[in-house]
Amino acid sequence: MAAPAEAGLSREEGLRLHRWMCATKALDDRMHILVRQGRAPFVGSARGHEGIQVTAAAVLEEQDWLVLHYRGLGSAVARGLTAREWMLAVFARAADPLSGGRNIPGGCFAHPRLRIAPTCQVVATWIPKAAGIAYAARWRRDGSVVMCTFGDGATSKGDFHEGLNFAAVHRLPVVFVCENNRYAISVPLELQAGNPCLAERAAGYGMAGVVVDGTDVPACHRELRAAVARARAGDGPTLVEARIWRINSHTSEDDQSRYRSQEEIEEARRHDPVACFERWLADRGWLEPAEAEQVHRELEAEAAEAADWAERQPEPRLQDLEAHLFA
Amino acid sequence: MAVKTLIEGVREALDEEMARDERVWVLGEDVGRKGGVFLATEGLQEKYGPSRVLDTPLAESCIVGVAIGSALNGMIPVAEIQFADFIHPAFDQIVSEAARIRYRSNGSFSCPIVVRAPFGGGVHGGLYHSQSVEAFYAHVPGLKVVIPSTPADAKGLLKAAIRDPDPVMFFEHKKTYRLVRGEVPEDGDHLVPLGRAAIRRQGTSLTCIAWGLMTHHCLEAADQVAAEGIEAEVIDLRSLRPLDRDAILDSVRKTARALIVYEDNLTGGFGAEVAALIASDGFEYLDAPILRVAGPDVPAMPFNKPQEDAFMPGPDKIAAAMRKLAAY
Ligand SMILES: Cc1ncc(C[n+]2csc(CCOP(=O)(O)OP(=O)(O)O)c2C)c(N)n1
Fold first, then answer.
1. Which of A161, A169, A326 to mutate to test the interface with B (most CBs of B within 10 A)?
2. What is the dihedral of CA A132, A138, A144, A146, to 10 degrees?
3. How many structural domains is chain B composed of?
4. 0.90 exceeded by the pTM?
5. Residues B41 and B115 reside in one and the same domain
6. What is the whole-number distance in angstroms between the Cα of residue A231 and the centre of ligand 1?
7. Is A246 an active-site residue?
8. pLDDT digits (tens, 9 = 90+) for A176-187
9. Number of domains observed in the structure of chain A
10. Distance A74 CA to ligand 1 centre (A)
11. Which of A150, A159, A247, A276 is buried most, with the most CB atoms less than 10 Å from its CB?
12. Residue A197: per-residue pLDDT
């Protein structure tokens, strides 16, 4: 059995991360089924992002904040979002804890109990907000850290620059994680950035920059844990670029075969972080393939049950259309 | 009560609220050591320290975005945008984020921020230091939009805005900063409620509705036409959103004539909304068409003095409209 110290990941931690990844995948797969069945209108898939997403939440403490990419289901799940809660959002039910059925699932992760800050769907707008939350955390001296995630497309926006610059000026306790799947819908990274290494931008701001293979869960865990430790110690923000492969189309409204070759789509499937991590766990003798299969079955059943349950829950009342506009 | 300028009213409000509640903080360009380009924040950094009176990078989206984040984490930010003309880069943060956080999260989060910005012209500011931007924000559900026209209101409305649990856009007409003087209550709890208009002059011949500097121009015009027997009632809206519909309709019921005056471009300016309100809910009171005096539909006020004067809805233009209206 390989020494856990090498990766800094214990068996228990590894199995927990794996379970969250499987839970995310199960919800994702179930959503695709629901869309095909005509029961749910939309799915934005996190397939391929699960490893970096669950580790981003796993390295945090309870008082820390998450400011999430709309694709960040895995982070929300690892933070404690339940299958039933998520399915309430998928079916836009009144009890949906994220928005009460007002927004596309994931379009606005907002969960006070889990300290997931509200974000909107305008790409990158949440990055300066993460810096602001961190500024207040510093002022309150509550020792909390902010984890902020986004895609590679977001790095082209002014808000990316403005948020990172502010965080660097004040050496704020925030970790910026770019989930670089090399696509913004159909636009490839080559048309997004002149320098394909996004982490190198960190130097321009005066903060730490790190590239990590986002399909390598132990590596993600190691780098994110180090970044959080730097933030908590007062050593300022880090930009982590996690390189991953987007396995599905951008959303159920998109058809990636229009802009990606069949070979590339198949290549992406070979970089499935769930499978990669299962190989790593199996190599250590921590999780046999049959056991992994068992975890998948269990969580698939949970996702299916959650969907059926959520679908039966009441819709928001029409008279609440104007509720919560002001205090 | 001491007589003060409008900018002193603003500064007193900030000072008192920062002293009252340590969560209140100010951020913006040059607000710290310099005390703001109009000196609205003069002396505050010395008193409250650089972490509560912060000179930010030159980045408006960042200023408002950081303000929003700090509000989510328990602070009460007052963000200064140096000139309203430069608020456009922050439009997204204000409209997509601040205005919608409570609604979008179904009431589980709120966004108690104030965004202050000097607006308006007549100060030789040219195209980029003269704009009126209130209509953009008054269009947005989830925002409150406030414009004081007196020093007492500047103080009382700003204090109320800071204590408000929702995002408030607070626009200060820069020409009124030092031009307009008046008594300002010393009382630390001098609050002017948002959403309530003030009748600045009683009259029976016509109702004149304005905000900001235009309130003063309307009062001057009213003095001009009073000699001719026209008694204009002048309403200072103070808040565009929430709008004091009752104050407007009550006055029009009495006078049967309505004139709306605003410095912003005529088309789609907030006065159009006021006109629509009177037309739909006050139609039966009216004896004359609703008139508007506003800025022309050009991008902004020119630097050239005669052209700047030609843009500005001044007392003479307003008086002419009053006469026209009274003649119906
Ligand atoms: C400012 C803005 N422009 C356009 C869109 C429409 N849009 C939604 S997602 C997306 C691509 C974003 O790509 P990226 O940031 O790389 O994240 P990914 O979806 O690949 O995870 C676009 C263009 C948007 N939401 N916001």
1. A326
2. 30
3. 2
4. yes
5. yes
6. 27
7. yes
8. 999 999 999 999
9. 1
10. 18
11. A150
12. 98
